[in-house]
Structures are given as C-alpha cells and as structure tokens.
Write a structure and sequence with these properties.
Shape of chain A: globular
CATH topology of the largest domain in chain A: Uridine Diphospho-n-acetylenolpyruvylglucosamine Reductase, domain 3
Distance between the termini of chain A: 52 Å
Order of helices and strands of chain A: EHEHEEEHHHHHHEEHEEEEEEEHHH
CATH architecture of the largest domain in chain A: 2-Layer Sandwich
CATH superfamily of the largest domain in chain C: [2Fe-2S]-binding domain
Largest interface: B-C, 87 and 80 residues
CATH topology of the largest domain in chain C: DNA polymerase, domain 1
Radius of gyration of chain A: 19 Å
Order of helices and strands of chain C: EEHEEEHHHHH
Radius of gyration of chain C: 20 Å
Strand content of chain C: 5-15%
Chains: A alpha+beta (284), B alpha+beta (818), C alpha+beta (216)
Distance between the termini of chain C: 67 Å
Structural class of chain C: alpha+beta
Largest sheet of chain C: 5 strands, mixed
Number of helices of chain A: 12
Largest sheet of chain A: 5 strands, antiparallel
Strand order of the largest sheet of chain A: 4-5-10-6-7
CATH architecture of the largest domain in chain C: Orthogonal Bundle
Number of domains of chain C: 2
CATH class of the largest domain in chain A: Alpha Beta
Helix content of chain A: 25-40%
Shape of chain C: globular
Number of helices of chain C: 6
Oligomer: heterotrimer
Strand order of the largest sheet of chain C: 2-1-5-3-4
Helix content of chain C: 25-40%
Number of domains of chain A: 3
C-alpha cells in the first residue's frame, strides 16, 4: 500500500476534473505525475479522502506554439519537455534545467505542472520558469485566469493556485536566440539542488542586452536576482564584468541552513553559480 | 607452502568465473528473505511502535486500543517473552524496553493481517513517556563521563622518553562521522513454527548461529528447537552481523504466540532509525617525529560513539587500537580507548570494524604533519613503513612487510606518479582557481577475528551415489562471492569440474556453532572447513581407487572429474568411482572443521598475535578541487592490492572496487546527522532516507579506475594460498581524503597544513580551502598545535575496566534453556 | 514532566514535521503535517487493464497500491525489489511503454492500457537477454539486489540514447548525445549499487551496446 486508503478518480477532461475537485473540496489531492505526492502520501504527511488523477486528460499534455509563446500543458512530463524541439529552440533554459531534474525514471512520470504547483524550493523548474517570465494558466469553475510568474510562487509549497483550481498550462515567452544555462550544485548526481542558478541572456554585439536570473533553493520560493540582472545590462560578457555583477546574487535572499548546506555556503554558492551560468549563457 | 595453501595442478580456484548465482541475479530469480513472504500462506506482518524521545521512561503502555483496529491480531510486549527479554549478547539490549534509549526505539510490536493493519495498530497503542535528559553527541558523553564497557589500553616502549627526545611534537583533536550501511535490502525475518514446535526463521543475517542463540533465549528454548536459514542478503557490510537478532526474535515470538508465520521487514526509515551504524570517533592525539620525519611516539585516546548499548563496540574499539599504526613503525605507543554511551542507535560492525577508524587517525596525523615537517607526504609515509623484524604495538611480528613497499613501488610505476606529480605542479601553477593533488596511502589490515575463539568454521559435504556433490558451510552470502569461492574450493579439493558441485543455503541445522560471516574471514575459515571435509572423502576414495587402478593410494590423483595414477595412464570417471565406493559401503559425506592455528590474544592486556596474517594494499588518488565551491572530481585512482593467490579473481577485483567506493563514500559524501537541538525532536536521526543521506552513484566513481591484484602473493597460512579481501580495500580510500587535503592546501602558500573535516563534503573542502588561503578556521575543527604541551589525551581513571575476554563472559551461565 | 500522548502520530506532532525533509530538497520545513489515522476500508478502483510482460492482465486493487507492491505482494513477481520505497534508489525500476519508471512511485491505477515490462519479462535463466548475459560476463553485480533495476534501467537508457534525449553532461542540450562512459554514468546515476559494482555494470552495458551495434 502506498498511503492511507482513498478514493481515486481519473477524469478525462478539465471540466470533469474541476467538478470532481469542487465536490471533494478540502479532502482532495490532485495527482499529476505523483513523483512527490506519492512519497508524501506514503509517509502519511497528507491523507486525502480523494485523489484526482489528471493523467488521462489529454488536453493537458503536450507542447505547442502560440505566437510569441511556447505553451506547455501542465501534465506534460519532464521527459517530453526535454525531448521538445520547440522548448529547446525558444526556451532552452527549461531544457537545461529539466535535464538536471532528479533521474530519468522520475522524469518519465513527473510533470512540469505538478512540480510547479508542488513548489518545492529545491525543485529545478521554478527558477527557470521565473526567469523566463512564464505565465501560469490557472483554471477554475469561473474559467481561466493567467498569473505572472512573479505572483505565482507565494511561499513554501504555496502557489497562486487556489482551492478548486488547477494549473492547466504554462505559457513561456519565446526567448529565441537567447543564451541559457542552468548551473546546479549537488553533492551527488541527480539529487535536489543545494543551490542552482538559472540564467538566460541576450547578447548583442558582445554586450549583454538583457539578462534574467532565477535562483533555486535560496529561500522559501524560487527567486529572481533582479539586482544582478540590472547590473549586467550593458556590460561586456567578460569574466570580470560578470563576476562583479554577480556578487550581488545573494542579495535579499534568506537561504536555509540544513542537512545539505549552511546558509553562508549557499549565499556564496549563489554568486559563483550565477557568474558561471551567465558566462555560459552569454557564450563567453 | 603449507598443506593448507598448496594448490594441485589445474585447480578450479584461481579461475575467473562468474558469481555462482549470476543467472539468477540477472533474471530476478534469486530469492531474498522478503521474497519468501508471498510464498508463505497466512503470514502476519509486524510493525513497531517507535518512541518519539531520545531518552524517556515508559510510564504506561496500553496495547488494548490497537486490538480494536480491524486486522490487528496481537500486540507483542515484554509480558509475552517466555525466556529472556534481551536481544543482545551483552545482556544490555532489552527486546522490549522499559526505558527508551534512543529516538525511534521500538517499545512494542503489532501483528496484523496486513502491514497496513499492523501500522494502524501501532498508531493506536497508547504509550506514556516521562522524558529524561539525553546525551546525543560524543562530546556530551565525554563531558558527562558517560562510558560503557571496558576501556582498553595498549602500550609499548617509553612514551614520555619518546616525546622527550623528539625533534618535532604536534598534537590535535579530530572527530569524524560514522556511516550508515544502507544495504539495499533492509532487515527482514520470517518465522514459522512447525507441527512439532520447531521454530524456523529465515533471516537476512550474517550470523545465523547468533540469531539462533538469541531467538532461543528469548523464547526460553534450547538451541536445537530453533533453526535459522539465510538464503542470501542484499548487502550486509557488517550491519547484519548483530543487528538482525532482535528482529528475528520478534518474528519468532509472534509466530510462537499466534501459530502463524510472521514477517518482519523494516522499511527504509525504520531500518535507518533503528539499526546501528559505523561508529563515529573522537580522537585526541600527540605525536613525535625525529628530525628525518620518522615517527618516535604516539599518544592517543580514542572515544567511540557507541550509542545506547554495547553491541560490538568493544571488539570494534579493540580493532581500532590494533590498527592505529596502519603500516607504520612507531617505537613508543600509548593508546587508550573508551566507548561513549549516547542516546542513539547501537553502533555496530561496519566493513573494517574499527580498523578504518584507527587508521584514519594516523593518516590524518601524517596528512596534517607532513607540511609542517616539510616532507612530501608520499615520502613521509613510505619512510615510516614497517620493515622485517618489527612488530606492532600489540606485539605481533609484522610478516611480509615488504609487500607494502612492493605495492607502493608498483603503484608509483603503473600510476606514473612522478610524471603526474610534475603535471599537477604545472597545472596548479597555471590555475589560480582550481588545484589538483595526488596522494598515496597504504593499508595493512590484520586478518582473523581479534577474539581467538571465533576463528573456527564448519562445513558439510555430501557426495551422492551419482557423483554429484552438495556442499553447505557456515558462511553467509551477501554479494561478496563467498559461495562462489567455496564451490571453487570444493571442486579443487575433490578434483571435479565446478559443475559437479552445488551449494545449499546456509542453515544452522546443517552446520552448527558458526561464527559470523565477518572480519573478511569467510573464505579463510569456511574454505578451510570445506577443504577438510573434501579431503576426508578423498582419503576414503583414494583407497577404493587404489584397489581399482592397482596403484598405491598415495599415487592416486583426482583431477577434472577423473581419477587416475600420478604420471598418467588409465583413468576412472569420478562418478564411477563414487558409485563403486558406495557399494563397498564407504562413507561418502563428511563434516569438515577448521580452526586458525597459531593465534593468541590477551584482550585485557591488548597484547598477542591475534591475526593470522596481514592484508596489504596501496592506492593513489588524484583529485581536482574547485576553489569557488569546494566541488571536486576524482580524476584517477590506481590500486594494487594483496589478496594472496586469488581464489576467484573476478570476485576479488569486484570486492576491491566496491570497498574502495564505499570507503570513499564514508570519507567524502555520506554525512550522518542527528538532531542535536533541544527541540522535542532531539536525538532524531535527521538523515533517514536516500534523499538526505548521500550515497555514491555512478557519477561519483573515479573517472579512471585501475585495480590490480598483487602478483606472486602466496599466503602460507590460508586456504589455497589466498588472502581475505572483504574489508581491507575500504581503507584505500584514505588516499582520496588525503588528496583533497593536499589540493585544498595548494590554494595556500607552500607548507600549508590543512584541517579537513570528515566526511570531506564539497562544503567541508570549501572551508578547508578558505583556511588554506588564510581565512577562518573550518567549522567544527580543532587546529593542530605544534610543540608541548598542546593537546594532552585524556587518561583513563583508576576505575576503568580493561576489555574482558569473551570466553570469561561466556563462562557465566546467562542464557535460558542452554 | 509527564507527557500524555499516544504512541506515535495519532496527533499531529511538531517533531513529525522534519519527515518532509526527507522528501524535499528544502531541508527542514514546516507546513505539512502527518495525517490522522484513517480507517481502513476496502476501496477499489475500477479494474485496470494493461499488458504485463507481454500478456494482458486485468486487476482491481485499492487505489493506493503501487505497481511495485502489485508485482511483489499480489502477483508473486519478486524479481523487482524494494529498496527505499521513496523514489530515491532506483532499485524498483521497470519499463512502462519502454520507458524506465520507478515501481514504487507508480500507482496501478495509472497503468490503464500501458505496457509494463519487469525483469521477468526481459529474460529467464534458460533464455537470458543479451544484456543479462553481458551482466554475467562483466560481473555487473555483487549482492544482486539492485540488478533487476539496473538491467531495466539500462534498457531504457539505451533507448533514450538512441532517441537523442539530452542529458546534463552533454556539451550542449541541442547536441545529439554521445555515448561516452561519462554519459552512460550520468544517465544511470538514478540506480544506486551499494556494493559499488559500478565498473562491472558500465562494462556490461557497454559490451551489450557494442555487440548490439548500438550506441557507442
């Protein structure tokens, strides 16, 4: 047995899923890929009455193009995002990061939407989603609403997805031609990030024209290193200039001291990884 | 060459053959204990009630609400024990405690029709606790004077004179972490009772006889009423040497009381929070060198963190003391040992059994002192190697010390060390933010159980009328290839092809009174016993063959399934001869026995020759450290290891590689943490899953990994000239730690001495780099002190008891029903 | 001081909270609590039909049953082992539609119309798969407990290589992945081997891939 006993439903449409969610209310848990939820249920950290499996809702799967955006269905697995040429071409930062998520076994079942809603601060999709200024499409009984990345992550394991709502897709603005790099620091391969930095930059004539930096596990939510981003604009993509700008990477963060690393060590790592990520993204 | 070590022509030992169960393993057909559960009808499942305190008195325990839970069949408590309520051999491990001694201690067990029912039942059991003050760290225990067991003292020469005349004196403190076994198969026992009241326990145990002993004394039965079988284990590493007994006893008790089979399989969290681990140690030391860097004196006090009960802590500590010299001659030595009693799991055997902890102290000392002495660490180490005629601090002559030097030279050559050292110097000169280093460390590891009596083994060899052979021996298989080696030994001694011999599972009703499969001695001891049994049969068959072939019995030769005359001529097929012998009423089976000769050990005085021989090895490891993060790569490892004349080279190479990886994990990645706060969770194991306790994976392997077995390495004192292999190579991983230290030091000025925490995680290396660059002290480290008095190791009080030999303890009637 | 309270977990307790640390990269966190004991009811899902090792199978089990427990506890297919049951060791790796997944983190209910292959479906002692032969030849195991997961994982991994799935060690994510030893190690790192038989495992996979004219 995995968890305490529960009822299981597997709707085949978003509408049915929302109806099931409305009916069960507080007592329901939404199952996406289950790679975080199932261990939580097994350890009885949560004991829902009903589990609503979104795995049979085809409309939630797949990657498509919509004008200036790449649209990724919430139930698209990591593996399918990793294999997507669209994502690779227009949001390479996500491909970079997903190649570092856990191990291939997890990537075959885990979904991008599930990870974003779970909002583990050490998870690897939050920071790139933030850096790419992703829009989060949230659907409820009243219809669809779109939430900006900056407003999506609210606290530890808390997002803008409200009661009775589902994250149905993310819309990633195309960053075609932008350089990108996800620098992840771990003790052993395939583990949770101790710290990671997601960087995507647009270089114009050897100068950084735009930069977006996301931080993983430097606080209770993914963070944006705006001070670094601003400092980078207009700088040459040189080691020295980037190093100077990235010294501020930990500014305003409050990383945890835990089994995997000291707070001070994490703050230091953030500056190092930011420099490396930016330089690699800038092709320097 | 001795009769024991001499090999016949064309022996099966020494051949590179796959593991005996290879085709079962790769197809998933190989059965482990828990796999038997689904094949057992009507089985009940056991689930513990684990206490949420590090230390507490149980003031009330009411199991009755659990019985209301659907599917709960019975709750096992102290009142149910018909024999002795104790799961250890030291009588300090109540199976059902009245006092909680560590966070997660099982206070009672619930049996259910399903595991879920048992789990829900365990939640329903009502327990009141009165929390008591707890000691969670070794420092707290030292401060409080909380020790347990004997306090061994080992001394040679004149320690003060050694320091008085020395050119260089250093002292320091060093604390290093233990290690979780993380065998992938968690503890598991399945017990059932047959129609005649015979208890049958299938257990993942390295020590079936002791599991049998404990089950019998808990149940108040004589040993002949209990049979324990171990098919195989999914890893043991010492973690299943003493720890399985209590779980087996719970399953057996449950089965006795309900009449139904009982399955007790720990889940990963239960296993990690309840079972013992490698001891972490604290060491205080002072050391003296002469002006050429030769060791003059070592004064050290080792305090192991024993956890809540003694378990194997005394022999682990004794082995630590016996290995503090590693491969180095130290004329004047004084080492004291003591076991801290803390409110943690009962720390236990783990591959190396204290040897690694003792050796880590001297390797750490040499690594810290070399820069101060201005001597290259490779030179400093080799300058201090034992030479012929010298003995260990406990008085055992070091036989074949030249093998360390030979391994050392071979690694220097095959690893191209001189060239690479030059390359590394050039790399470091041209890379400001990344440094490389290459370190070499030796291993000398004593083989035999320290306690002489354990060095015995038995085997049962059956030759059936058709010539097929079935062997059973007292050792258990946990992946180390023991069964493979035993098949090879039997085939060699009987002179039959390997396919003629089959092996039956390890059971106490086949071979009684066995020792643990531990101390690397499985093949030495059981191989000796298998060989003895086979030789008895051969001697009987020799007479039959002599008659049939018309030759003198001494001229009969058994080889490759044929029996003939030495020097050639007509032969008789093995099966024909066996069949003929049967009709002549010749006994075709034999019980074999082996005891290691020439051992003596006084554990009270810490003196004697406890080891049959020493195993040797040398490793060179090259690392690259990143200044900014402390991250490192293990670029290359070269090993030459002495396994004697290998019984089974494929198995031995695997053991060397695997032990090295496990050692490197202990020293660099695996970080056991307990909650040391004053919160209610104080004493809780914080790293209790694979996600928080980091094990080496494929990606942490050395990028280049060259392992060679020392050639022409015959060992007279062991079966077919071989040597034990299970534990010694683990300690080759010191080379990784020392390389990390040197690479961190390379960020500082020449001559920088670096204190490195253990495990040397990237974060620890980062702080070491900061120290080398003149920054702050690494956290949790005490800097080394030059000159006297410095750190003065604590000396034992007048009331400190020495270790008492097990035989004295065994002489006391303590067990029920025996 | 006397502390009234039940054995464990009947009430949400502060000291249960760090459990989440074992499931999260976030270290010590708060916010989720262990749930109350829940009454056991036999709640079954509608029958799930899928293919297991080439044969159709229909099962109706409680919704909480994992594929791993179905195999081991109900179908007597004990070749797939239980290591951590938390998705962190890779021991229970099986193939679903040819892709490697963890048996402990897959519910039976999620398998409708899928094709599941376990080690029993890869080969038998009498007729082993070539990769299984390669594991024997290269001594790709010691205790054998992780072996069925390693073999299923390797089969999935080789297919991913053939499909051009990028990995973290590839020079550039857009590049067709090579199949260097480094690449293979990275792609297999979700499968732990506590005996440290990694060299033998890599050699076995490489030997098989070479012989299969594959990806090296």
């Amino acid at each position: 047995m995995i968890p305490a006993s529960f009822d299981y439903v597997a709707p085949t449409s978003v509408a049915d899923a929302l109806a099931a969610l409305a009916e069960a209310g507080d007592d329901a848990k939404v199952l996406a890929g289950g790679q975080s939820l199932l261990p939580i249920l097994r350890m009885r950290l949560n004991a829902p009455e009903k589990v609503i499996d979104l795995g049979r809702i085809e409309e939630l799967k797949g990657v498509s193009e919509d004008g200036d955006h790449v649209v990724i269905g919430a139930m698209t697995t990591y593996a399918d995002v990793l294999a997507s040429d669209l994502v690779r071409q227009h949001a390479g930062l996500l491909t970079d990061a997903i190649a570092e998520v856990a191990d291939p076994q997890i990537r075959h079942r885990g979904t991008v939407g599930g990870a974003l809603v779970h909002a583990d601060p050490a998870g690897d999709v939050g920071a790139p989603a933030l850096a790419l200024e992703t829009e989060f499409v949230i659907t409820g009984s009243g219809g669809e609403r779109t939430v900006a990345a900056a407003d999506f992550f609210q606290d530890l394991f808390e997002t803008a997805v409200g009661e009775g709502e589902l994250l149905t897709a993310i819309r990633v603005p195309k960053h075609t031609g932008w350089g990108h790099r996800y620098e992840k620091f771990v003790r052993v391969s395939h583990q949770w990030s101790i710290v990671a930095v997601a960087a995507t930059v647009r270089v114009d004539g050897g100068t950084i024209a735009e930069a977006r930096i996301g931080l993983t596990n430097m606080g209770s939510t993914p963070l944006r290193a705006t001070a670094v981003e601003q400092a980078l604009v207009g700088k040459a993509a040189t080691d020295e200039a980037v190093r100077e700008a990235c010294a501020a990477a930990a500014e305003g963060t409050n990383p945890p001291s835990d089994l995997n690393g000291d707070s001070d060590y994490r703050r230091h790592l953030a500056t190092v990884l930011a420099r490396r990520a930016v330089l690699a993204a800038a092709g320097a | 060459m001795s009769a024991l070590s001499e090999r016949p022509a064309n022996p099966v030992v020494g051949q590179e053959i796959p593991h005996e169960a290879a085709s079962l393993h790769v197809t998933g057909e190989a059965l482990y204990t828990d796999d038997l559960a689904v094949r057992t009808h009507g089985i009940l499942h056991a689930h513990p009630v684990q206490a949420p305190h590090a230390h507490a008195r149980i003031t009330r325990l009411d199991p009755s609400p659990a019985l209301e839970v659907p599917g709960v069949v019975r709750v096992l408590t102290a009142e149910d024990v018909p024999g002795v309520n104790d799961a250890g051999v030291k009588h300090d491990e109540p199976l059902f405690p009245s006092e909680v001694m560590f966070f997660g201690h099982a206070v009672c067990w619930v049996l259910g029709e399903t595991l879920e029912a048992a789990r829900l039942g365990s939640l329903a059991v009502e327990v009141d606790y009165e929390p008591l003050p707890s000691l969670v760290t070794v420092h707290e225990a030292i401060e409080a004077g909380s020790f347990q067991g004997g306090q061994p003292h080992m001394e040679r020469g004149d320690i003060e004179a050694g320091f008085a005349g020395a050119a260089h004196v250093y002292s320091g403190e060093f604390e290093f972490a233990g290690q979780e076994h993380f065998y992938l198969e968690t503890h598991c026992s399945i017990a059932l009772v047959d129609e005649n009241g015979q208890i049958f326990v299938q257990s993942s145990t390295q020590h079936p006889t002791e599991t049998q002993d404990i089950v019998a004394h808990v149940l108040g039965l004589p040993s002949h009423a209990v049979t324990v079988q171990c098919l195989r284990m999914g890893g043991g590493f010492g973690g299943k040497e003493m720890q399985p007994h209590g779980y087996a006893a719970i399953a057996a008790l449950g089965s006795t009381l309900t009449g139904r089979p009982v399955r007790l399989r720990l889940n990963r969290t239960q296993d990690m929070t309840m079972s013992g681990k490698r001891h972490g140690f604290h060491a205080q030391w002072r050391v003296a060198f002469d002006d050429t860097g030769r060791l003059q004196a070592l004064d050290a006090t080792l305090t192991s963190d024993g956890g809540w009960s003694l378990d194997l802590s005394e022999p682990v500590l004794a082995r630590a003391l016996c290995h503090i010299d590693n491969a180095y001659w130290i004329p004047n030595v004084r080492v004291n040992g003591r076991i801290a009693k803390t409110h943690k799991t009962s720390q236990t055997a783990f591959r190396g059994f204290g040897g690694p902890q003792g050796m880590l102290v001297i390797e750490d000392i040499l690594g810290r002192c070399a820069p101060q002495l201005g001597i290259d660490p490779i030179e400093l180490r080799s300058r201090n190697f034992y030479v012929d005629g010298q003995s260990t601090p406990y008085g055992q002559p070091v036989r074949h010390p030249e093998r360390v030097a030979i391994c050392w030279e071979q690694v220097l050559t095959t690893g191209d060390v001189a060239t690479r050292k030059a390359d590394i110097a050039a790399y470091n000169a041209s890379h400001e933010h990344s440094k490389r280093a290459l370190a070499m460390t030796p291993v000398k590891f004593g083989i035999s159980f320290n306690f002489t009596s354990f060095n015995q083994a038995g085997a049962l060899v059956h030759v059936y009328k058709d010539g097929s052979v079935l062997i059973t021996h007292g050792g258990t298989e946990m992946g180390q290839g023991l069964h493979t080696k035993m098949l090879q030994v039997a085939a060699t001694t009987l002179g039959v092809p390997l396919s003629t011999v089959r092996l039956a599972p390890t059971r106490t009703d086949k071979v009684p009174n066995t020792s643990a499969t531990a101390a690397s001695s499985g093949a030495d001891l059981n191989g000796g016993a298998v060989k003895d049994a086979c030789e008895q049969i051969i001697e009987r068959l020799r007479a039959v063959a002599a008659g049939r072939l018309g030759v003198h019995p001494a001229d009969v030769r058994f080889s490759d399934g044929h029996v003939g005359k030495v020097g050639g001529g007509a032969t008789v097929p093995w099966a024909d001869l066996v069949n003929q012998a049967y009709f002549q009423r010749i006994q075709l089976w034999a019980a074999g026995f082996y005891r290691t000769e020439g051992l003596h050990w006084d554990s009270s005085a810490m003196h004697g020759s406890p080891f049959k021989y020493f195993s040797y090895g040398v490793a060179a490891s090259e690392v690259e450290v990143d200044e900014f993060t402390g991250a490192y790569r293990l670029r290359q490892v070269d090993i030459v290891h002495d396994v004697g004349d290998s019984l089974s080279p494929l198995v031995d190479i695997g053991q060397v590689e695997g032990a090295f990886v496990q050692g490197a994990g202990w020293l660099t990645l695996e970080d056991l943490r307990w909650d040391e706060s004053d919160r209610p969770s104080r004493g809780r194991l914080a790293t209790q899953a694979a996600s928080t306790y980091k094990l080496p994976s494929f990606s942490e392997m050395p990028e280049v990994f060259n392992v060679a077995l020392l050639e022409r390495a015959h060992e007279d004192g062991a079966v077919y000239g071989s040597k034990a292999v299970g534990e010694p190579p683990l300690m080759l991983a010191f080379s990784v730690r020392e390389a990390l230290r040197e690479a961190a030091a390379a960020f500082g000025p020449a001559g920088t001495s670096v204190d490195l925490a253990s495990p040397a995680t990237p974060e620890a290396v980062f702080w070491a780099v900061q120290e080398a660059r003149g920054g702050a002290e690494p956290p949790h480290m005490t800097a080394m002190v030059e000159g006297a008095p410095g750190v003065v190791p604590d000396q034992p009080g007048a009331d400190a008891a020495p270790l008492r030999p097990r035989s004295e303890q065994a002489a006391q009637p303590a067990r029920a029903g025996t | 001081m006397r502390e009234a309270g039940k054995g464990a977990g009947a009430e949400p307790r502060e000291d249960d909270v760090p459990d989440l640390a074992t499931l999260s990269g976030a270290g010590l966190v708060s916010g989720l609590r262990k749930g109350d004991a829940v009454t056991v009811q036999s709640r079954t899902t509608p029958a799930v039909s899928f293919t297991l090792n080439g044969a159709p199978i229909e099962v109706a089990v409680e919704a909480g049953v994992s594929l791993l427990d179905l195999l081991r506890e109900r179908l007597d297919l004990t070749g797939t082992k239980k290591g951590c049951n938390q998705g962190a060791c890779g021991v229970c790796t099986v193939l679903v539609d040819g892709r490697r997944v963890l048996g402990c983190l897959t519910l039976v209910a999620q398998l409708d119309a899928r094709e599941v292959t376990t080690i029993e479906g890869v080969g038998t002692p009498e007729q082993p798969h070539d990769l299984q032969r390669a594991f024997i030849g290269a001594d790709g195991f010691q205790c054998g407990y992780c072996t069925s997961g390693q073999i299923c994982s390797a089969l999935g991994m080789l297919r991913e290589l053939a499909d051009g799935v990028p990995s973290a060690v590839a020079e550039h994510v857009a590049a067709q992945p090579g199949s260097s030893e480094l690449e293979m190690r990275e792609r297999m790192s979700g499968n732990l081997c506590r005996c440290g038989a990694y060299n033998g495992i890599v050699d076995a996979i490489a030997a098989y891939a070479d012989a299969a004219g594959g990806h090296r």
